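Q: I'm writing up a methods section and want to include an example of the input and output format. Could you take the sequence below and give the corresponding predicted structure tokens, formatted cleanly so I can copy it straight into the document?
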Amino acid sequence: MRKILLTILTVSLCVANAFAMRFELLKRWQDIEWRAQPQDRLVDYMRLPDGNLLLAGTSYVRQERQYEYRRWWLGISDPAMDTLLFSRVYGRDDRVIAPQANIRVTSDGGYLLYGKINRPPRPGFQNAMLKVASNGDSLWYREYPSYCVYLVPCFVSETSDGGFYVVSGDADTALFEGADFIQIYKTDSLGEVEWEKQWGIGFEHPLHPYSTLVLENDDLLISGTDWTFGAPYENGDRVRVHKGFALRLDSNSEEIWFVTYRDTSDYSPQNNPNGWFSDSIIMSDSSLILGGGIDYSYRDRGEHRLWLVSLADDGSVIWDQSHILSHPFGTTAVRNIFKTQNGSILGFASSTIYREGSPSYSLPIIALYDSVGEQLDTITGMHDPPIPDEFPGSYGGRTACDFGNDEFLFRLDRDFYKLYLNQEVSSVKPVMVANDFFLYPAYPNPFNSQTQMRYYLPDAGRVTGAFFDLSGREIARQTLGEQASGYHVLHLDGSGLASGAYIIRLNCSEGVTEQKVILTR
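A: Here is the clean output for your methods example:
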């Protein structure tokens, strides 16, 4: 027993600057003196060239039966979010504005607000754009027909001629709670439609777009999820499976290529992967990176992965990487991805955690990858209180924005944080897990012989580690000694063990935490 114990559990101390990322609280929502009434929502944000923050959201007007009437809101704050430099509300008070309220800076220096609106009792939510001058004056407003419900966001990208692509999932009836096909509008610089296209009509399975990107020659890349159905469960219900897709169109709406990834046509109910893409970027070598998630879920079995795929110009796969999260998460996906100064890839992600009899909540995840998708570092932790299951990034909202010089701004619930890459730090405590004894996901997991888990001690104290099989039989226990507050790394060597699932448990004065790991041969 003692020999196995020494092989299994060894621990080494690690300070925060050994990792590639750190973050700190920038501003709590309740501390923002200029914040509006509680019913208002701040949805999207980005850094302006002068360093200030451009903010977008919705302003509450009134509640009438099942409808919540809102107008769009635009604001500019200083980088520290201490002072609101500009604020204005746009639109009429007879519109139902969906939670989506995105913002982008246009090539002429103005701003474009876009999202979904509805005029009750007319069914369905329309795609809408509002062009605003740099001084805040409204220039023009356009609506584009759509029958799809508001949960399917629209996406807008600017073209080289100053026009726009407006893309959303759509359906031929407002009663359908999703999208059947992809609706695309190409407009001029004034928002007038030059052409429109409905792509995917006649498919046996619906398409949901979640990201758009304008490529060279104004080609349009659309990525998302392709819903399909396969073999039935034992009770006869058909299994719904999501496959990630990418569609490339030229500037005249002609298809260049359409590819699905992780084709699951031969899956079984015991091997039921769902995949989707949520964001896309162009790398310096002109390759495309798609970020999203993969879930393998069947009854009490669940495996959830962050997913990155690199594509060549013709849609073929250069590399495909997914990384397993060992906690029993629900829907898991990279929401926003960024290219860093040294060519690595930064992903802001979240997992929805489902608790029987209780509201679901979101666990934020930040992951750093090298240029071929190998995971370099991960930050994850429970937010206190738990984040409601409307994580930033829902409805097309932004999870994070690039602040320049490998600094990033991101949101957890309504609070804002700054993330720093490759900067030495020894005293910053992670706000998300402050005052919490927390064990981070093992990596890799499953593992062949060795894996490691980072954990955080809020206060110095004695730590004990124990190792169990799933029957609860204790295989090994070891006192890891007095340890300082901060980050530590637990290295696990399972070379003397049989394949299977095990539980690693850590005890300290702050409490007990444990995690399941899977050893494969």
